[in-house]
Each structure stands twice: as C-alpha cells, then as structure tokens.
Design brief:
five-stranded antiparallel β-sheet; about 65% helix; 11 strands; Mycobact_MmpL; cell membrane; alpha+beta; MMPL_dom; four-stranded antiparallel β-sheet
C-alpha cells in the first residue's frame, strides 16, 4: 500500500497539470453521470421491519396497503361570517373541494366530510394513489385546489396537512438547514485553516478539495443509489462527513509537506518533498480512510435501508476524499512549491534575505504544558482521565431509545401547525392500528367474524374509540381491520393500545383461525418495531465493529497491544459522548440554548451510528499520532521520548483537524430535525473528547507506562529500540 501511495504521488508530482485536469474531469463526470441516471429513492417496502413490516407486506399483497392521506380543515374566519351563514358556507366549500379532489388523477378517493365535536370545523380527507414515499411529489396538485377554494371563499379558513404535505415541508426545511449549515461551516473552516497556514492560498486548498470531493460524491451516490436505495438524508451526511474528512486528509498531507520543506532548507525539490509526505502522511491517510470505510460498512449488517443509505453515503465520500488527497493534492503542492521557490529566488536576486521556513520542533509551550501530566504522572493521569470519561458515560444507564415519529417534527413547518389543530379538533382520529389477516378464501367469513369480535373488545376499552372499518381483498384472502386511538402516536397510551392488541385481543380472536397469518401495523407499530429490530441487530454490528477496528489497527501498526488499546479508547470516548447526549437531550434544561423540544428520549438510529462513525473517525487521529511515534521509534528514538515528540509534533495538525470536524458537526446542532441535531451534537462532543482527552492524556500516559511493550509483537519496531539502548550502554562503558 505504501509503495502504491508513493507511486501515485510521484506520478502526480511529475505530471501536475494532468493530475489537476484529470481530477476536474472526474468531478464533472461524476456529477454528469449522477444527473443522467438520477436518484433511486427507497420505496415503502424497503422500510418494512418486524411484525408491522410483515403485516404491511400482506396488506400490499391484497392491495389493501395504507394510502397517504391529505386532510383539509375548513372553518369560518372569526368575525367574517355570522353564525347563520357560516355553516352553509363551510359545507359548500367542502363540497366544492371534494369535487375538485375527485377530478385529480393523483387522488384515489375522497371520504365524506366529517364535523368536529364542537361543530366548528369540517374535515375533508383525500387518499392519494401509489407509494406512500412518493406522495409528497403529488401533493402540490391538492394544495393548488385548496388554494383555489380558499381564494373563492375569503370568509373561510382552509388549512391543509397530512403525511405528504408534512414530508414536503420537512424536505424544504432540510434544504434550508443545509444552506444554514454551509453558511456556518465554510467561513469558520476557512478561518481555522488561515490560522493554521497563515496563507489564503494554502488555506483554500483543503477547502476546495473537500468541496470538489463532496460534489463528486453526490454524483456517485446517485449512481450507487440504484444498488443501495437513497432515503433522502444522504446529501446531509455527505456534506457533514465529506467536509470533515476531506479537510482533515488534506491537512495531514499539507502539514507534513511543509515540515519536510522546512527541514530540507531548500535542498530537496518539490517533487521529492511530495514523495516524502506521501510515504508518511499519505500512508496514514490511506489507512485511516480505509478504517472509516470498513467500520462504516458494518452498518449494512443492521439490515435497515436507512443505515445502508448512511453507510453508502459515508463510504463514497471518504473514498473520493482519499482519492483527491492521493492524486490532485500532490500535483497542487508541486505547483505551489515551485511558485514559492521562484518567489524566493527572485528575492535572493534582488539582494533581499530569504525567508526561513523552519519551524521549531516541540509543539510549543502550550502542548508541553498539556503533556506534562502524562509525562510526569502517567498513572495518576490515566486513572483520573478514565474516571472522568466513565463519569460522563454514567447517564447512559438511563438511556431511552425511541423511533422519532411525525410528532417530533419542527412546528415551524406550516403543515405541522395544522396537524396539531387537527389532533385537537378530532382527537378520535389521532392514531390508526391496522390488524391484517391472511387466510384461505374459504375462511373469509370466519376472519370477518373474528375481526368484528376484536372490534367489540376494542370498543369496550378506553384506549380505543368506536371508529372502525373492515376491508377485504377482491380474492377474499386478505382482510384489514382499522381501529382508531384517541392519543398521539408517541404517547404511552398509544403504545399501551398496541401492546393490548398484540398481547391479548388479536391472539384471542384471529389467533384462533387455523392457518391464518396476522399482524398489527400502523404508525405506532412501526415506531415500536424499528427499535426492537435494531436492538436485535446491535450485538452483530458492534461485534463486527470491534473486530474490524482491532484488525485495522493491527494492520497499521503490527501491534496487538495498540490494537486492543485503540478498541478500549474508542469505547471510552463513544460511551462518554453518548452519556453527554443523554444528559442534554433526554432532559429539558438545554431546550432553550439548543432550540429543541425534548422527547425524553434519543433517536433510535443515533447510538449505533455514533459508534460506527466515531470508531472510523477516531482512526484519523490514532493513525496519524501513532504513526509519528512509530516513525521516531523506527529511527532509533526510545519509545518514551518518541511518544512525547510524536504527540507534540502532530499536536497542531490534530488540533486543527479536530477544530474543523467540531465546527462541521456543531453546525448540525442548529438544524431542526431532532435526530440530525442529536447526531451533530454527539459527534462534535466525541471528536473533542477524542482529540483532547484520549490523544493528549490517556494515550500518552498508557504508552509511557507500557513502554516497549506497546509494540508487541512487532519485531521491526522493537529491534531499533533494543539497538539504540545497547548503543547507549556501550557509549556509557567507553566513557
């Protein structure tokens, strides 16, 4: 791998314009190809898991699947109409709207208008044709008709909501959030890079390469979506991860090239300096990138379309970012290096002093002070740091994981505001459970009788309303009973009603039909089954994650000790970050500063996603820092001194990389989508803990205590250590 990295860098350095033009062509081709093939969005069937998923599949087989519903509330504006004229006007508007909806090709059926309990609001419901996931693309036609009726009736108020319009509102908000994230992240990242390099040109290189990598990854992700369907959050993730790792990989490479340039004092050509950087930091970039890819790939084991989409987006953007750092970056460094050399020669010809590029070794007083506890008191530093992280992880004991439902969306979305008014005016229609049964056509009468009995049991239970409907497929093999619940989908009562159905009512009725297959689906069932499905996959994913992390670290450093240490440190930082997440988001004390409404729980996808992504990203720092230490040891420096020198020499780049990553992740805390907000917060916290606690306190303390044992069983590292020690002994004897 190292020789391949050097060969790629050498070719790019010898043919810089070819590499630069080739990269630009690659980015354009990726975007063009992606635009040509389009995005293959995940279908409703791709999301099915657990009992709810099986029941939905049975209902779809009988063409009784749930349809997306749009709901329009019609009421008189306060003071616009007198009481006598309000009712006829509302009814006429409902009749007009119903007729308009029925003429639309997107609409399958329109229900009879329903009056609210207080008689003030009339509800018109329209079921849309086709996939649930595609309904948001059809809703504009209904919104237009609602607007037309509103315009014709200025004295009335028509408000539209429903799953399609809410989904459309969420997509619009997500787009605005992305723009906000970019507006925050890009300037702060540029300022950070300006501080690191002191040059607009050098600061612009990492940012431009990261942005071009993101552009190429977006195009490639469209192509790959035809293998692994896109769930609509891939672009968010590509932006977040792409900017973080794209800048980091370029930063690692750039800093090493500048170090070698300063060390050579003009004796080496730009091409030679790039090769040196490729042989050291280039290898670290490749290894750390592969670690992110392999770690992220464990998400496919979750057998979940959302995790698969997250994994695909991450893998694509990391591979593209690696490619840019190994091809076009060396070419840019050569061009920039030659320009700097020409500038210095002109200065020398004019008799001006040549500006020294030598930077002091040792990392400065700040890092010397930060490393002092680990250097002087490694045992105490290790114990205190580990205990502090364990204390941060303590809130994990109260972790509550739930599926983030429609009720958790931001109320800044107009359709969500109408959704709240709908639930208030029609509480009996808040949640629907679907009891799906498949049996032989000859058992149809028995199935209908059992479902009717089930409806009677539910009617006598205060957890349910008396609203019910039984539908049967044309071939009489599939039947669906719809039961309404007067509670919000994320309430305890809604979950209790689901348990009541699954544990008692369904087994006592349709459960007695010989050969029948049955299940309960609906929104609450989905919210319940998804976390259960994920928890069932959790041991497999985490086991694979620990194994591949161990394997990648072992491959990178040929050390079992460091591989085990890396796994333990990653677990510590991930647990501490999750503990902070629980502390902040499961309570209500941070709602104001972070602008969210606490659900008293953590999104079901957040913990697993954190573990997988953090294990991969942590390899960035570990590979880079330990590579510098290993490099020094191979050069004959004693392990103790190599640990301190390696961490000091890499301190500025690790700090800069952590600052960039933290900025990127923190920008997602300002988003409206609660799960993205939680992911941004927990990743930012994890990066800070990893960079400033793990790499500055725990890692050096542990390696100082382990000494040469850190490299066991790698003979290639321990031999120079022994030879250096023996040489010191001989020198002492001679003296």
């Amino acid at each position: 791998m190292n020789s391949l990295t050097v060969r790629m860098a050498r070719w790019s350095a010898l043919h810089p314009w070819r590499a630069i033009i080739g990269w630009l062509v690659f980015v354009v081709l990726c975007l063009g190809l992606g635009s040509a093939v389009g995005v293959n969005s995940a279908k409703t069937a791709d999301y099915r898991v657990g009992e709810a998923g099986r029941a939905e599949a049975i209902a779809a087989e009988g063409q009784l699947e749930r349809r997306s519903i749009e709901q329009v509330l019609i009421s008189a504006r306060p003071g616009a109409l007198d009481e006598a004229g309000a009712k006829p006007a509302v009814e006429a508007a409902a009749k007009d709207l119903t007729a308009r909806f029925e003429r639309l090709p997107e609409v399958e059926s329109v229900a009879e208008p329903v009056l609210s309990g207080d008689g003030g609001i009339l509800l018109v419901e329209a079921a849309l044709k086709g996939e649930e996931r595609d309904a948001k693309d059809k809703v504009d036609a209904l919104v237009a008709q609602t607007g037309a009726v509103q315009k014709a009736n200025p004295g009335l108020l028509l408000e539209e909501t429903g799953s399609p319009s809410i989904s459309k509102g969420v997509d619009k908000q997500r787009g605005e959030d992305l723009a906000l994230s970019e507006a925050i992240t890009l300037p702060v990242t540029l300022i950070t890079l300006l501080i690191v390099f002191g040059s607009v040109t050098m600061a612009g290189v990492p940012l431009l390469l990261a942005l071009s990598s993101i552009a190429a990854a977006v195009g490639l992700s469209m192509v790959v979506s035809h293998i692994s369907p896109d769930t609509g959050i891939g672009t968010n993730l590509i932006l977040m991860i792409g900017l973080a790792v794209g800048v980091d990989y370029t930063l690692f490479y750039l800093k090493r090239e500048r170090e070698e340039r300063a060390r050579s004092q003009g004796k080496l050509s730009s091409e030679a300096l790039v090769e040196l950087a490729a042989a050291t930091s280039g290898r670290a970039v490749v290894v750390s990138g592969l670690a992110v890819v392999v770690s992220t790939a464990t998400l496919y084991l979750a057998s979940d379309v959302i995790f698969s989409s997250l994994a695909t987006g991450t893998i694509v953007v990391v591979l593209v970012a690696e490619l840019s750092s190994l091809t076009v970056l060396p070419a840019l460094l050569v061009k920039l290096g030659k320009r700097a050399e020409r500038r210095e020669r002109r200065r020398a010809e004019r008799g001006k002093p040549v500006r020294s590029r030598t930077r002091g070794e040792g990392g400065g007083r700040v890092w010397a002070a930060l490393l002092r506890p680990a250097n002087r008191h490694p045992v105490a530093t290790l114990c205190v740091s580990v205990l502090a992280l364990l204390a941060l992880a303590a809130p994990l004991a109260g972790l509550k994981i739930t599926e983030m439902s429609r009720d958790t969306h931001s109320r800044e979305i107009p359709a969500m505001q109408v959704y709240d008014r709908l639930n208030e005016a029609f509480p009996e229609r808040r949640v629907t459970h679907d009891i799906v049964v498949r049996a032989d056509a000859g058992s149809s009468a028995e199935v209908t009788a059992a479902l009717s009995k089930l409806a009677e049991l539910a009617h006598a239970d205060p957890l349910f309303t008396d609203a019910q409907r039984i539908r049967t497929s044309d071939d009489r093999r599939v039947s669906v009973l719809e039961l309404k619940v007067p509670h919000l989908g994320n309430s305890d009562e809604a979950y209790d009603s689901l348990d009541q159905l699954r544990d008692e009512y369904v087994p006592a009725t349709v459960g007695g039909i010989e050969g029948a297959e049955y299940g309960v689906s609906g929104d609450v069932a989905r919210y319940s089954d998804y976390p259960a499905h994920q928890n069932g996959k959790l041991p497999l994913v985490l086991g694979a994650l620990l194994l591949v992390t161990f394997g990648m670290t072992l491959y990178a450093f040929r050390s079992v000790v460091l591989a085990l240490l890396g796994v333990v440190l990653n677990l510590l930082s991930a647990a501490a970050a999750l503990g902070l997440l629980v502390l902040v988001f499961q309570g209500s004390w941070a709602e104001g500063p972070l602008n969210f409404d606490s659900t008293g729980s953590i999104g079901s996808r957040v913990p697993l996603f954190l573990f997988v992504i953090l294990f991969g990203l942590s390899m960035d720092y570990q590979v880079f820092v330990v590579s510098r230490i290993r490099e020094a040891v191979l050069g004959g420096v004693p392990t103790r001194q190599a640990v301190l020198d390696g961490i000091r020499s890499s301190a500025s780049v690790v700090t800069s990389a952590a600052a960039v990553m933290t900025t990127v992740f923190t920008s997602f805390v300002f988003l409206h989508i609660i799960e993205m907000k939680q992911i941004g917060f927990v990743l930012a916290a994890a990066v800070l803990l990893d960079a400033f606690v793990i790499r500055v306190l725990i890692l050096p303390a542990a390696m100082l205590l382990l000494g040469e044992a850190s490299w066991w069983p790698s003979r290639g590292v321990r031999r120079p250590v022994r030879e250096n020690r023996e040489a010191s002994v001989v020198a002492a004897d001679v003296r």
